Structures are given as structure tokens and as C-alpha cells.
Amino acid sequence: MKQIHANILNIEDTILGKITLTGKNIFGRKDYILVQGEQELCPSGYAATITNMVYIKGNRPIAGGVDLKEFHEGDVVTINKEGEITFLYEIESTSNAIFATGRCNHRCIMCPQPPVVHEEDMTPFNMKLISLFDKKTKEVGITGGEPTLIGDKLFDLIKQIKKYTPKAAISILSNGVKFADRDYAMKLALCNCYDLQIDIPIFSDVAELHNEIVGANTFYKTVQGLYNLALFGTKIGIRVVIHKKTYKRLPQLADYIYHNFPFVCNVAFMQMETIGMAEENIHDLWIDPYDYNKQLVEAIEILRSRGMQAAIYNAQLCVLPEQIRDTAVQSISEWKDIYLDTCEGCKLKEQCGGFFASNKKYHSSHIKKI
Amino acid sequence: MKYEYTILPFRFDHFSNEEYLLTNDVGEYIFLKNADFEKFVTHELDSKSDLFYDLASKQIATTDKVEDVVKMLATKFRTKKSILRDFTSLHMVVPTLRCNSSCIYCQVKRHEKSDHSADMTKKTAKNIVKCIFDGPSPYIKIEFQGGDPSIDFEMVKYIIEEAEWVNLFKKRDLSFVICTNLTLLTPDMVKYLKKHKCDISTSLDGPKDLHDTNRPLQDKKLDHHEIFEKNVKMVRDIWGDADCVSALMTTSKYSLGRYKEIIDEYIRLGFNNIFLRSLNPYGFASEYKEKVAYPIEEFIENFKEGLDYIIEINKKGTFFVEGFAALLLKRILTPFATGFVDLQSPAGVGIAGAIYDYDGSVYVADEGRMLARFKNYYFKLGNVNENTFQEMFNGKLLHEIIENSCTECLPGCADCVFQPYCGADPVRNYSVQGDVVGHRPTNEMCIKTKAIIHYLMEKLHEGDPETIKIFWSWIK
After folding, report:
1. From the list B53, B68, B335, which residue is nearest A259 (CB)?
2. Which chain B residue lies closest to A256 (C-alpha atoms)?
3. If we measure between CA atoms, which residue out of B302, B327, B286, B315 comes closest to residue B423?
4. CB of B30 closer than 8 Å to CB of B24
5. DSSP per residue, B300-311
6. Are A83 and A34 in contact (CB under 8 A)?
7. Is residue B284 predicted with pLDDT exceeding 60?
């Protein structure tokens, strides 16, 4: 998430609000944060005021010394007592997501966001957050951690999203384990979301190898979860993160998915984000993406010939063989997407997904201008 | 060293001198070198080797809890057999036995054009439609057979309209197809068929001389092949779609050695698929055996040549499908169910397809109707004018036939490595070998099907990427 730092005054508890540049009627200001230029006076009624002035004063909550160009009408931010302004929702982004929980029942060796063990219930905050989303939002993600660990509150979030952003497609990232409980899968279906997809990782066609990667004995629970979700007609995607422990059997995995889960709507192969646990375990995990092209091409061809949709996430076009470049998706969120100096003047830069900011250190040695 | 793993049920056989083929109930397969096979079955295969992982991936062995793997196998097995859920969907109806052809391999006691003694009555037609809709299937396909049903087109129209009327209330997915030699179709008839979404299925045996030898018209003065070609064009022009008419070929003695010409003729006439079909040994065909029949081995050789030729044609850029290979490949390569009345397990007789004769008699399959001509009524379920749907389709006879037609437990099939891809044909077993179970080692259909599956497996094992791509294009 995008974060910027500000000087603050009169902010004790974290403030959540929706950005307005134009101002609101005095009776409808309490959920808004006013962004204003060089003005001494802070109007009353707003949750806070943000300004580009460095010297701030007064007795209302105010954050100063920031670049106003960062803010857009309709963004939703929090300001905490350390002066961090965090963008939880960006009106111009297509990858806005709710962070349902930081907890997880897996311990994936390449997790970019290692789970927390204890946390307070985030749902009331998230419910409020969703209510501030713009009504025309086209896409809302639910992620974590493992979002199903909040139990039935997940459905409250979904219903809230449906209520405040009726046109949004909802995409949930889950390890699928919880859906081994058929009732839980049914409850998701009963939310009756026309445009909801749940994306679930399967890392190997061999249970033992999958379990080794996720750090839990859950392969068959995830399988049962997939079956239950399919039973209720929920749209499912499968995600495969490619690293040293998964690349060898990608073709077999593709065939396995076709034979066991032919009902999934797409299979995404993802280049690893080298942050968090992935960075810690980098020696066990890192393989130059160029070096798994053979297996990746074969896997994609297997899925394509069988009429299944395949996609490659987080990859750079220059590293991919031409025959599968059309399956590459620009999938990296704007705020962490970067390009290297080598990329300057590349013909494909516009279509290319670029890099995770964290991959600056670890990336293919075959990056070149095309 | 012994390794801990559980071997799950599979079938196997020598595939070549060096290799075994293993298949399991859900159709997954793998080739193992002789030495690896020995190691595998004696628990000496390293359970962390890639080869073991391949076996585990196909659910032929596991190091996990067996219940977990069996659950997945069960789901896949249900999917493979899911056509059973719908019950009978193909309903063949014979509006008349009159015909203007005199095909050399005809199995039907055809009637002259003017002989109305084997025409269906409206009362019978109405009862047939009622019986069809008493069935539970959400899909209903009514196929008009004969004779040539276009001779009694008024009855075809009556049945179509009666079925459409009943379907206003029953709301099934209803479709029609008419099997005709095309010669008697007029533009008005075609327009009617188009309006009622009744596809046309016809017969084409090859180039002119062969087609006319196999399928002469009764009126010797008429040129069958020429009328056929003209009418195919007329049908397509009216329909505005080349796929509205499909063709079937039958191999007579005269067709052997001529598959390339036959295939070329199909392509010339704008068809994009062919079903290289051997002769049925029923009816007239067995009476005139020496005239039209041939040893099954000759058919197999011809089939292989034909298939190779079709693959070459595809490689050169023309999309053209061999239907039997496509069916078997779908069973070998995909997790999905494939209905094919003549080759499924349990057999499709009665539970996938049924035929209603002009007099209202119901048989489990077309060949059952042929047997009835020789006064053998074993496969007659009843008559729509006397019996209810329940009596016929849930009666003792059909139960008995089906119980004896599951390849999973038939002698010679139960342990056959190709079992998951094959099927039983109790009617043929009965008529050729005297009982519904049959005797596999001397069974021509078994010899043929095994040879063809083996040939396809060889191709898959060779793994020429272009051929594999072509195979997948046929399946989709």
C-alpha cells in the first residue's frame, strides 16, 4: 500500500477518512479528510485536514508537509500518530483490497507477508472502510493472511462490498482449506455474488511436495475445498508460485489440474516476490526465471490445448519466450511496480508487467531491452 | 531396499517388449519400462523419485492416507460415469420401413415405396412421444430412422410437432435428427427441418462408383451419387451452414483399400469429419456375408492407414476429424464423460438409447429390432401401445441386460488394460456369440477396438507434438 509521511498535530487515535479536495457540506463532513493548499484556517467538521504547509497549527487534527498531488478525490486513507498516511483505497487503482486478517494457517516458505499470530478483530474497521469506497468501484479484493480465518465475518465483508460497491467484481485470495467444510462453501455461495472469484494456490501435483511448501498437512483439505466450491458453482482460479521447489513439475501439475479440477476458470503461474520469507529462504528458492522457461512453456501449452485459460503473473516479457508472451498479465500493484535502467527505451515496456520493487535485488540475469 | 507406499487399483499389460502400460479406473495411464514395473510392484521404487511422483500424480500409488486419494478417485469416477445420471436421451423412431434404396449391407426388412403395411399410425406416434417424455432425461434427442423417414414425411412432421407440443409443458432440451439418403428431400422439406432445428444425418460411402455399388437406388435408372451431391448443396444453401448435415460411412468389402479415396471424397464434398465404420454382422449382412463382409483384421489395417492419412491431411492444414479416434482419445486424454451408445459401460442399450419401431415396439437398440425380424424378441422391452415407461425401462429384462454389460466385471474385460476406454455391446454378443456376455478372445468387436486403442496409444507414446496437437483439436 502507498504510504507517505507527514507532520501531524492533534492526532492520537488513527483517523480513517475519505479524501475530498473540493470540500463537503458542513453536515456531511465527519467521514471526510479535507485536502487543501496554502490556507491558515482548518474548516470545522472534517475528520482531519491535510495540507502542503510545513508549519501547522491550531487545535483540530491536521497533517502537513505533504505533496498534494498524491491525493485524489475519493481516496481513502488512515493517518496515525506517527504521521504515516496510508492509502487503503485509491480511486484510480484497479487493485484495491481489504486486508481481512494478518493471521494464517499456512507457513509458506516463500510468503511475502509473514503472518502475525495475534491481532485484534479487524472486521469492524474493514466494514467502515468498505462503506467509504466509491460506489463505482469495479474491483475489490479480499486478502490477508488467510481471510477465511475470520470465519463467518468474511461473509459480512462480502455483503458490505455488495452493498457499497454493487458493481465491483470481488476476488478472494485463500488457501482453500476452510472450504473443506461444505457448509462454509455453501455460505459463500449463498452470498449470491454474481461476479466473485476465489483464487487458491496448488503448488504441486504431489501432496507431499505441496505440504512441504505450505508448511502444513493440508493438501487434501484444499482439494476438498476446491470440490466443495465447484459443487456450489463458485468461480475458482488456481495460483502457482514458481521457485526452485515447484518449477520442475509444472507440466505435470498442469495436467493434474486438468484431470482433477477441470472446472477452474484459470490457472495463474506467478513469478516469486522476493520479500518476507522468500528473502529469508532465498537460497532454497531462487531460480532465474529464464531457467524455468522450458517447464513453463510446456505447462502453458498443456493448459491451452485442453481449452483452459492460463496466465503468467509478475513476469517480464523479455525473459519469456515469444510463444507465451501473450499470456503474461500486468499484475503488480502500481505502488510496488518498478522498471530497471535496462528497460529504458524497450519497445515492450508499455505492455510489460515490470518488477516488484523488492525484486530489484533478485531478478533474472536475462533482462534486456527489446 | 523396500519403500513404504500403497499401490492403488490399476490394470496393466505388456505394451511392447520393453514396456508395460498401466491404466486405472478413471482413465489415467502411464508407460513403465519392464524393470521399473518390477521395482514398482515389489515396493522397490524410490518413493521420492520422479517416476514415483508421476504414479502418485495419476493416483496409481500413494504415500498418503488412502482415504484421501480414494475420495479424489471417486469424484473423478463419478465424472467419468456422469452420463448415467441423465438416463435415456437418444430416442430412435422408425416412422416407416419404406425405402427407395437397396443398400447391399442393409439390415432392415425394407418395404417398397408403395407398400404401406409398415407405416406408423398417429396413435402409435402419439404414444411414443408420451413414452419418451415420461423418461427423466433433461436432454431428449429424437432420431428418425427407417426405411427412409423422408418417404413418410407427414409422419415425421406429426412426431416433431407432437414432441414440441408436449415439450411446452415438459421443458426439456429437445433436438431432432433425421437419417436419410437425401434423395427424396425437397427444398420445402429442408426449410421445414431447418425451422424445427432437425439436423440431417446421411450416408456417404465414398466416390461415385463405390457409393453406387454399396448404396444403389431401387430405381436403377437414377444416379444416386449425383442426386446426393446436388441435394447436399441444396440443404447447405437453405441452411446457410455446412454443419447442418453430417455423413456416416460403412465399410463393405468393396471399400477396403480405398480409404484414401473415400476420405478425399468427404473433403471434396465439404465434410470436416468421417467415422470409419466397420460393417455390422446382422441382418442381410450375415445372409450375404461372402458378398459384403471381410475379416476384421483387414478392417483394422485399413483403419490405421486411413487414420494416418487423416493425420497427414491435418498436418497440411485441413481440419478433418476421424470420429472413432476422437471418441477414444476423449476417453484416454480427458477427465470427462463420453456417451456413445454402442461402446460404453454399462452398455448404452435402453439406458442411453432406445428404438421405437413403426408398430410401437420398443427395443434396447437398433440391432435388437433386426433380431426381431428373425422372430427373436429377446431385446424387446414392450410396446408403447400396451406398456408404460416404467414397465419397459425399469423392468426385469433391462436390469438383467445392464447387469451383464459392465466391462468392469465382464470376463476378458475386467482385467483388460483398455477397459476404462471401452464398452460392452450385449446385443452384438447375443446375436453373434449366443449370449449377452459374449466370448472376448473370439469377439470381433473386441479385437477391433483393442487394436485401434493400441494404435492410438502408440501415437500418444511416440508423442509427435504435431500429432498430439491435432488429437487435441479433435477433442475440443
Report:
1. B335
2. B57
3. B327
4. no
5. HHHHHHHHHHHH
6. no
7. no
* pLDDT (tens digit per residue) in A2-33: 899 998 989 999 999 999 999 998 888 999 99
User: Chain B contacts of A205, Cβ < 8 Å?
Assistant: 53, 56-57
Query: What does the DSSP 8-state code read for residue B215?
Result: S
Q: Give the one of B28, B63, B334 whose C-beta lies nearest to A208's C-beta.
A: B63
Three cell numbers written together for B310: 487423416
Domains along chain B?
Answer: 6-80 (no CATH), 82-371 (3.20.20.70)
Query: pLDDT value at position A360?
Result: 81
The answer to whether residue B283 scores a pLDDT higher than 70 is no
Q: How far apart are CA A308 and CA A314, in angstroms?
A: 20
Residue B110 confidence class, pLDDT cut points 50, 70, 90: confident
Helix-then-strand count for chain A, H and E:
9, 18
pLDDT at B281: 66
Domains of chain A as residue ranges with CATH? 3-89 (3.50.30.10), 97-360 (3.20.20.70)
Residues of chain A with pLDDT under 50: none
SS3 per residue for B114-155: CCHHHECCHHHHHHHHHHHHHCCCCEEEEEECCCCHHHHHHH
User: What pLDDT score does B5 carry?
Assistant: 97
Which residues, listed in sequence order, are joined to residue B249 by a DSSP beta bridge? B276
pLDDT in tens, B266-282: 999 999 999 999 987 65
Q: Would the pLDDT of B334 be above 70?
A: yes
Q: What percent of chain B has pLDDT over 90?
A: 87
Residue with cell 455483503: A159
ipTM given for this complex: 0.92
Are the CB atoms for B332 and B468 separated by under 8 Å? no
For cell 491404466, what's the residue? B23
> What is the rounded CA–CA span in Å between residue B141 and residue B92?
8
Give B-chain residues touching A258 at CB under 8 angstroms. Answer: 334-335
Polymer length of chain A: 370
Please provide the distance, in angstroms rounded to a whole number, between the alpha carbons at the two ends of chain A: 31
> In chain B, which residue's Cα lies nearest the Cα of A219?
B68
